[in-house]
Design a protein that fits this description.
By secondary structure, this protein is α+β, with helices and mostly antiparallel strands. It has a five-stranded mixed beta sheet with strand order 3-2-1-5-8. A three-stranded mixed beta sheet has the order 4-10-9. Helix 2 runs antiparallel to helix 3 and helix 5 packs across helix 7. Strand 1 and strand 2 form a beta hairpin. The chain is built from seven helices and twelve strands. The chain is elongated. It binds dinuclear copper ion (CUA). Dinuclear copper ion (CUA) binds next to loops. The site of dinuclear copper ion has 9 residues, from loops.
C-alpha cells in the first residue's frame, strides 16, 4: 500500500491549521479579526472542557455499579441537579454571553474612515474609490493601521465578502448596500474569498487586500487616478486598435481611451495586477494571451467569450494590456 494515497488528506489537515496561509481567521492581521479570533479561542476551549466533563460524568454513570451507589449522595439528588443543571450553565453561559456582546459592540463601524465600494459580480470583484475617482478589480489597496469602511453591493446574485485575517463575513445582496469595515494593522497582503455559493465559478472568486503604509497608499491612489496615457510603441498602438476593433471595449473600460464598457473589469491598470480571473491564474504574458484567446478553457462558465484572433494580433493586444501599469 502506498503512502501517497494519504497525501491529499494530510495536505487538507495541514492547510486546515492555516499555519502559513494568509487566508486564516486564526492568524488575524487587524484589530477586528483579532477580537473575533480571541472570542473563537475562548469559546472553543471552554466548550471543549465542558464536553470532556460531560463525557466523564456520563461514563461514571454508565460504569458505576448500582451497589456502589451511596444511600445518601453528597448534596442529595436535587442538589446535584440544581448545581450541575442550573448553576453551572448559568455561571458559564452568562459571562460568555456578556463577552460576546462586548465583542459585537467593539466591532461597530468606526466613524470617519476611508470609503471603498466593492461590488460582487459572477465571478469577480469591482472595487471603487469614490473619494479618489479610482476603479479597479480583484485587488483592494488600503492604508495600513487605519479602519476602512466598505460599501458592499452585488450586480447579480448573492455573494459574501470575506477576508478572514481582517474581519468576519458580510453578504453582498442585490439591491442592498451593506456596510462593513476592515483594518490591517500592518502592511502586507491578505487573501479573501467569496463565501456564499454564487454559481459555477464561486471557488474562483478570490481577492487580495494589499495594505500599504499610509503615504504609499496616497501615492498609489494618486497614480491610479491618472487616466492611461497614449501607448508608447508601434506594437502597443496596434494593440489598442485591436482592443477597440475586436469588441473588447464593449465590456471593458480603459480610462483615457474610447473604451468604456461596464460589464467586465476595468482594465486601466491591468498590467499591475497579480492575477487574472479573480485569483485564478498568475498575470503573466503567456497566461494573459491564453486568457484572451480562450478564457472558457481556464475558467469555464465565465462571461468572457473566446477571442479568435491571429497570433500576431493576440501578441500585440497582450503587449498593450501588459503595459497598462
Ligand atoms: Cu461570489 Cu461565491
Amino acid at each position: 500500500m502506498s503512502n501517497s494515497r494519504y497525501a491529499p488528506a494530510v495536505c487538507l489537515l495541514l492547510s486546515g491549521c492555516g499555519a502559513e496561509g494568509a487566508q486564516s481567521a486564526l492568524r488575524p492581521g487587524g484589530i477586528a479579526a483579532a477580537k473575533i479570533a480571541t472570542l473563537t479561542w475562548v469559546m472553543t476551549v471552554t466548550f471543549t472542557v465542558i464536553f470532556f466533563l460531560v463525557v466523564a460524568v456520563m461514563l461514571l454513570a454508565v460504569f458505576r455499579s448500582r451497589q456502589a451507589e451511596p444511600a445518601h449522595p453528597p448534596f442529595g439528588r436535587s442538589g446535584l441537579i440544581i448545581a450541575g443543571g442550573v448553576v453551572l450553565p448559568l455561571v458559564v453561559v452568562i459571562p460568555l454571553l456578556i463577552y460576546s456582546l462586548e465583542t459585537s459592540a467593539a466591532l461597530r463601524m468606526p466613524e470617519d474612515a476611508l470609503t471603498i465600494r466593492v461590488i460582487g459580480h459572477q465571478w469577480w470583484w469591482e472595487v471603487e474609490y469614490p473619494e479618489h475617482g479610482v476603479v479597479t478589480a480583484n485587488e483592494i489597496h488600503i492604508p495600513a493601521g487605519e479602519p476602512v469602511r466598505l460599501e458592499l453591493l452585488s450586480a447579480d446574485v448573492i455573494h459574501s465578502f470575506w477576508v478572514p485575517a481582517l474581519n468576519g463575513k458580510r453578504d453582498m445582496i442585490p439591491g442592498i448596500v451593506n456596510e462593513f469595515w476592515i483594518q490591517a494593522d500592518r502592511p502586507g497582503e491578505y487573501r479573501g474569498q467569496c463565501a456564499e455559493y454564487c454559481g459555477l465559478q464561486h471557488a474562483h472568486m478570490a481577492l487580495v487586500v494589499v495594505a500599504l503604509p499610509p503615504e504609499e497608499f496616497a501615492a498609489w491612489a494618486h497614480q491610479r487616478d491618472e487616466p492611461e496615457t497614449a501607448p508608447d510603441t508601434e506594437l502597443e498602438r496596434e494593440g489598442l486598435a485591436i482592443f477597440l476593433r475586436a469588441g473588447c471595449s464593449r465590456c471593458h473600460a480603459i480610462r483615457g481611451t474610447p473604451a468604456a464598457g461596464e460589464l467586465g473589469p476595468d482594465l486601466t491598470h491591468i498590467g499591475s495586477r497579480e492575477t487574472l480571473g479573480a485569483g485564478t491564474i498568475p498575470n503573466t504574458h503567456g497566461n494573459l494571451m491564453g486568457w484572451i484567446g480562450n478564457a472558457q478553457g481556464v475558467k469555464p462558465g465565465v462571461f468572457m467569450p473566446a477571442m479568435y484572433l491571429p497570433a500576431e494580433e493576440l501578441h500585440a493586444l497582450t503587449q498593450y494590456l501588459e503595459g497598462l501599469k
